Amino acid sequence: MTLDTSTLAPAVGLPLSRVEGREKVMGEARYAYEQPIEGVAYAAAITSTIATGEITGVDASAALAIPGVLAVVSRENAPRLAEVDDGELMLFQSSGVAYRGQIVAAVVAESLETAREAAAAVALDYRPTAHDVELRSGHPRFYKPEKVNPSFPTDVAHGDLDAGLAAAEVVVDATYTTQPIHNNPMEPHASLAVWEDGGLTLYDSIQGSWRAHNEIAALFELEPERVRVISQHVGGGFGSKGTPRPQAVLAALAARIVGRPVKVALTRQQLFSMVGYRTPTIQRVRLGASRDGRLRAIGHDAFEQTSTVREFAEQTTIATRHMYAAPDRLTTHRLVALDVPTPSWMRAPGECPGMYALESAMDELAIACGLDPIELRIANEPERDPEKDIPWSSRSLVACLREGAQRFGWEGRDPTPGARRDGRWLVGTGVAASTYPAYRSPSQATARLDADGGFTVQIAAADIGTGARTVLTQIAADALGVDPSQVRMEIGDSDFGQAALAGGSMGTASWGSAVVKACEALLTQPTSSAGTGQQGEGEVTVNTADEVKALSKLSRHAFGAQFVEVRVDADSGEVRLPRVLGVFGVGRVINPKTARSQFIGGMIMGLSMALHEESVMDREFGDYLNHDLAQYHVPVSADIQEIDAVWVEEDDDELNPMGSKGIGEIGIVGTAAAVANAVHHATGKRVRDLPIRLDRLVD
Asked: What's the burial of 461, exposed, middle or buried (CB within 10 Å: 0-12/13-18/19+)?
């Protein structure tokens, strides 16, 4: 198959608008809860009102007497599920309660309103036990997990940290804390389950349909081919939809019990208890350096929480292992299992809270050494990955710092804290570095020549609002040598085969590699037997698993720098952000329009982490007090006046056929530290406990 591409401009690199944009604007894009399935019933979850203990009785009589109620589901009548690693999914398999807000029963009814009314009528009796829900220093049950997410060593040591600190001329030893932060995607977690001929079709708001179908199949003891998970459109996730969540299991169980399709949508309040969140952290960072700022010792210890249901150990200190070089280094993680929901992934897990602590400490070190914070970072730029002693595929941190300094107007900055004032406003600027790994995971894609002369490409990718459909269309168009309008991109269906989930900033690299290979194989296919798979004439399926395994041994990371100007009201402690700039080195940018949106979105989440977001635990009841968007604060337009993101040119042919690195998460990494550093520059007050609330700035 040959095509004339002599007159076509490359699609990759163009600011192409969303290919599904019209569907979304017109309301035609169907999300999981909106699928037009006939005969649907509705399930409402009933959640525990105690933090730990046991359910001793379920009285469903009043609920069952309400017209339209089809069933009350609890441990007393739920089907048995296979034992899986994720205890959050084991609904109704035990009388035990592991945390407040855990699903303990449900009502299925003809309408959502009836299901919710009946759910309030179900009476549950409990035998509560004493609970422990507070992460605190010196907790007696801290332990060393075998690994941290997903499979990193828990502790890594090089040299002798204590000796390095003892020999250092300047030492920074500080403890930083972050609070629990909850994912709040615009689309709540929702599922629609349909059983037919012994198989299950699940329409789910999920970031990875392929992984989900395998996990659901194991839970219900079905062959994987008997489970199909479809997620054509997903309204945000930020990690909380990376794996199946309890509402998906509830929908499947309820549908099996009542013998008809069942929809489940969690309420905004329920999102605070059962779909994951960023663990709070207590982090001690120790830096030892010579007077000229050269690092001699780096120590970073993280203390975090998990649940009693499932272990999740966030990889908080791993970025410290490769960010800066020093002969003596130690990074550790310790965990305590509390009577709380299980923490999980939230945008840049590990790197985000970890780099807040490290980059805040680097700012403190710069001040202690009397150095500009940019020059301190440049002075400690490593030539090779300090942890693995291997070359970088590319590293543009210095270029990002230099470019950002020029654009932001950093030159001539007076480093004296509290030196600038505009009326009642104290003014300051801060900087921090950021990094995120350039991951890639095996994926499968199918490319087909259609009868109308166009092309269809299928891959089980997920578009969670990032523009994945659009960039994959551009990648396919270039690989095929056609205009993007000739490509139909079909995603979000586990039947399309193995594919990476939309997480770890690896989506475009993983899916795009498979799309390129499938399209190239289609073009070189003389007959139906060509390529790496045969689906019939004019169709080729390719899986990149072997290629991913064979990648050369290089350290692959994106890098960046965030610059922030703050204004702090001297009387009230109110913080405003007149200017925010991010500069990034992320390989080849596929679509500058969607890329800029991703960078800015990430930075706004980082600003929110620094100034607003904080899930407040009620120690008496074991529940979060501010579990809705009326009380859980996020930024609004008045908080941020100007925000921009740019990138430096970076040519990295060691990554994937596109030369791209992930962009979804690096924007949030480093931003919180840049804000904290700017607040210190404005006020002279070093806030080491996020968020930077008013009371922490007012004497």
From this structure: buried
pLDDT value of residue 4: 54
Which position among 359, 387, 403, 665 bears the catalytic label? 665
HSE at residue 627, side-chain half, CA atoms within 13 A, is 19
| Nearest CA among 302, 117, 86, 352 for reference residue 212 | 86
- The model's pTM is 0.96
Peptide bond into 526 cis (omega under 30): no
Residue 123 has pLDDT above 60, yes or no: yes
What's the token pair of residue 108? 């299925």
| 20 is a catalytic site residue | no
Q: Cα angle at 149 between 101 and 319, to 5 degrees? A: 120
Class of residue 459 by CB neighbours under 10 A (exposed 0-12, middle 13-18, buried 19+): buried
CA 681, 356, 464: angle at the middle one, nearest 5?
A: 125
Bridge partner residues of 697 (DSSP): none
| Phi and psi torsions of 50, nearest 5° | -120, 160
- What is the secondary structure of 217-255 as a DSSP string? HHHTT--GGGEEEE-S-----TTTTSS--HHHHHHHHHH
Between 592-611 and 671-683, two packed helices, what is the crossing angle to 10 degrees? 50
- Which is nearest to 294 in space by CA: 328, 330, 318, 331? 328
**What pLDDT does 639 receive?**
87
| pLDDT bracket for residue 549 (50, 70, 90) | confident
